[in-house]
């Protein structure tokens, strides 16, 4: 009888081990709406593909809220395994990596023994998130770039050619306004689209020390004549009713969807939502306009979006699951689906090739605009991207100063001088805290 009991207990132990609960891995993200549904689907599909790990995808609010929540959680030793951080938080996360708070992706994958080749990722994407030794610190997840969205139906109706320069944008806006279009031009994420990307597109620096890539002693220089004249041009267009400001992020999206605006500069990642919401007319996307007073040809645009950062402080066994999840979401099938459904660029060459082979770009003209812009030329020190400390707060400063221009309280020169001065103060605070 004793032997039977021992055998029964042993059998139960073996069965219990075989059915052990999967290791739970918390993934905090900032993807709402349709993007959140796809992000949740990635987690669910990964969970269904194996039984050892369970990814808990948790929406934590917008980019700023998600990053702030993760920092607070780390201080309380309640941090998630993975957190999605937008590109302007990169310098802050790199500083955290230097203090042991971040588990760099290149090290994570090697330690976990999970296959990983950095060369599989698009150079324009990974260059933003590598250290000085070209090692990848965070996993590219959702990368986009600004494009010019336009109301193709209205343009054809009015006989207006799609603008390729800012002079042509202004001319198109005047024709549209005369034809009854309420506010022909608008844009979102204005620091990103009208200063950061404008500077890269025209191969001019936004700051010293290679836009912050070269060190913490960087200083802003975007109060240069090119940017000042560009911002003043838009302000002047606003006075004529050709431009209307609609908010700091994607707030002005509705103006484009309802036809109030027929040229809208913002992320390529609005594609999926536009495809769903715009049913009464046809939209298109074109490359960003060139300011011919500044450059003869465009350089390349820069990325926005976010990457997945791994936070330290968890059991080492959990990190094997993180690495396996990263391998899963980087696979061509997932990335091609993400790209085609959302408008974010495919982060790997294989996903781009798969989209080509599936005929996606032939069936949906213009959907490769973002990729073409990012890979137009080899990035220079001016067009690789920006890596400024405290840049989340600095963008708020830039927003405030630009809003003062749009409302007529300041001219562009004064506003850009003030933004540079205030921004440099924040750069010095970041430098003193991290050197």
TrEMBL record:
The record, for InterPro entries, names: Bact_solute-bd_prot1, SBP
Please indicate if the UniProt record lists Protein transport as a keyword. Answer: no
Q: Name the SUPFAM superfamilies on file.
A: Periplasmic binding protein-like II
Q: Where in the cell is it found?
A: Periplasm
Instruction: Tell me the function of this protein.
Output: Part of the ABC transporter complex UgpBAEC involved in sn-glycerol-3-phosphate (G3P) import. Binds G3P.
What NCBIfam families has UniProt attached to this entry?
PRK10974.1
UniProt-recorded name of the protein? sn-glycerol-3-phosphate-binding periplasmic protein UgpB
């Amino acid at each position: 009888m004793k032997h039977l009991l021992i055998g029964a207990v042993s059998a139960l132990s073996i069965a219990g081990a075989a059915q052990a609960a999967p290791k739970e891995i918390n993934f905090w993200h900032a993807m709402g709406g349709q993007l959140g549904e796809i992000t949740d689907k990635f987690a669910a599909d990964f969970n269904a593909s194996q039984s050892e790990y369970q990814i808990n995808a948790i929406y934590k609010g917008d980019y700023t809220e998600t990053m702030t929540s993760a920092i607070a959680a780390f201080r309380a030793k309640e941090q998630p395994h993975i957190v999605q951080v937008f590109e302007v938080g990169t310098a802050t996360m790199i500083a955290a990596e230097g203090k042991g708070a971040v588990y760099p992706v290149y090290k994570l994958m090697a330690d976990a023994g999970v296959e990983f080749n950095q060369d599989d990722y698009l150079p324009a994407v990974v260059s933003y998130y590598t250290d000085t030794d070209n090692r990848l610190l965070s996993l590219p997840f959702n990368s986009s770039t600004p494009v010019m969205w336009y109301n193709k139906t209205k343009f054809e109706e009015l006989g207006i050619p799609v603008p390729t320069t800012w002079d042509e944008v202004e001319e198109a806006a005047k024709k549209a306004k005369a034809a009854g279009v309420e506010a022909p031009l608008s844009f979102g994420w204005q620091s990103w689209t009208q200063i950061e990307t404008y500077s890269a597109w025209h191969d001019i620096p936004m700051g010293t020390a290679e836009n912050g890539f070269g060190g913490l002693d960087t200083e802003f220089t975007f109060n240069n004549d090119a940017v000042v004249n560009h911002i003043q041009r838009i302000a002047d267009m606003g006075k004529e009713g050709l431009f209307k400001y609609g908010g700091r992020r994607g707030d002005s999206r509705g103006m484009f969807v309802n036809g109030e605006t027929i040229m809208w500069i913002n992320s390529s990642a609005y594609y999926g939502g536009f495809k769903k919401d715009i049913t009464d007319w046809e939209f298109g996307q074109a490359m960003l306009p060139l300011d011919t007073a500044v450059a003869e040809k465009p350089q390349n645009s820069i990325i926005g979006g976010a990457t997945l950062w791994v936070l330290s402080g968890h059991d080492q066994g959990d990190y094997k699951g993180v690495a396996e999840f990263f391998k899963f979401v980087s696979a061509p099938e997932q990335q091609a689906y993400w790209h085609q459904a959302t408008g974010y660029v495919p982060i790997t060459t294989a996903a781009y090739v798969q989209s080509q082979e599936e005929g996606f770009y032939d069936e949906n003209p213009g959907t490769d605009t973002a990729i073409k812009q990012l890979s137009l030329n080899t990035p220079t020190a001016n067009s690789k991207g920006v890596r400024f400390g405290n840049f989340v707060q600095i963008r708020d400063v830039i927003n405030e100063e630009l809003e003062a221009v749009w409302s007529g309280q300041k001219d562009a020169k004064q506003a850009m001088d003030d933004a540079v001065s205030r921004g440099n103060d924040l750069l010095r605070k970041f430098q003193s805290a991290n050197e």
